[in-house]
Amino acid sequence: MCLGGLDGRNTGGVHPVRLALSRAGAVGGGSTLLQHGAVKCKRGHYADRIAGAAAEAAREAARRLAGQVHVVGRDPDAEPWRALLQWIRWGLSGRRRGRPVAAVRDAPWQDMVSGERSDGWRTRAAILGREHAFAVDYHLCRRCRLGWVEHPYTMPEYQRCGLASAALAQLRAEHPGLSWHTLGGHFRESRPFWAAVGAGVPGGYQQRRVCPHITNG
Q: How far is residue 66 from each of residues 55, 61, 204, measured CA to CA in Å?
């Protein structure tokens, strides 16, 4: 018994799918189209593998950076306009990423006057190449034994690599005996993060207004 063709006619025992492909090749160069499709598929597969490898290499670099959190370059005399000027220059050259943070020597982590807030607020930032992988603003009041952190931000490709938790832990280590808070409340999607980093920490990074000795910038 012979199988019917795709158009209902007898195919003489030839598999209907093979018959259809042979007809497409005879009429419209179907075999060539299939070859091009295979090449594109293969190229797409290689491109995905390369992109995946590059992304994993970047994440591994971020994890190493988190382990260097104690290597901090400090610039106590920096002015906010320097950070803003650097941010603008990077934008003109197409390299701007994240928030305006001025470079401090060659340290992987940098600490300087905040480019966004005044009255003693500082920024702790992690740098990968010319990219700001992470940054957070912070302020201390030693008289009240209080510390605040605000707007921790990690670039999407470096998230879940330990940069934020490492930075907050390092600030606590450098300034022991303080109760740590944030100025604002926590968005729903960020609550698990704050619960994790605040576990066992005095203040628990709960929302608290600044004391009378400082302003919120």
A: 17, 9, 21
Average pLDDT, the chain: 77
φ/ψ of 199, rounded to 5, equals -65, 125
CA proximity to 115, closest of 101, 136, 125, 104: 101
Sign of the torsion angle spanned by Cα atoms 95, 101, 105, 111: negative
Structure tokens at 3: 């199988």
Instruction: Please indicate, yes or no, if residue 6 is contained in any of the structural domains.
Output: no
Query: How many CA atoms, within 13 angstroms, populate the side-chain half-sphere of residue 56?
Result: 6
pTM of the predicted model as reported, rounded to 2 decimal places: 0.67
Examine residue 3 and state whether it is found in any structural domain, yes or no: no
What does each C-alpha distance from 31 to 12, 19, 108, 213 come to in angstroms? Answer: 22, 12, 55, 78
pLDDT digits (tens, 9 = 90+) for 15-49: 554 444 455 444 445 556 556 666 666 666 677 78
Number of domains in the chain: 2
111 pLDDT more than 70: yes
Position 80 in a domain: yes
Which of 154, 91, 80, 84 is CA-nearest to residue 121?
80
Please give the Cα distance from 210 to 144 (Å, whole number). Answer: 10
Pairing state between β 122-128 and 72-75: unpaired
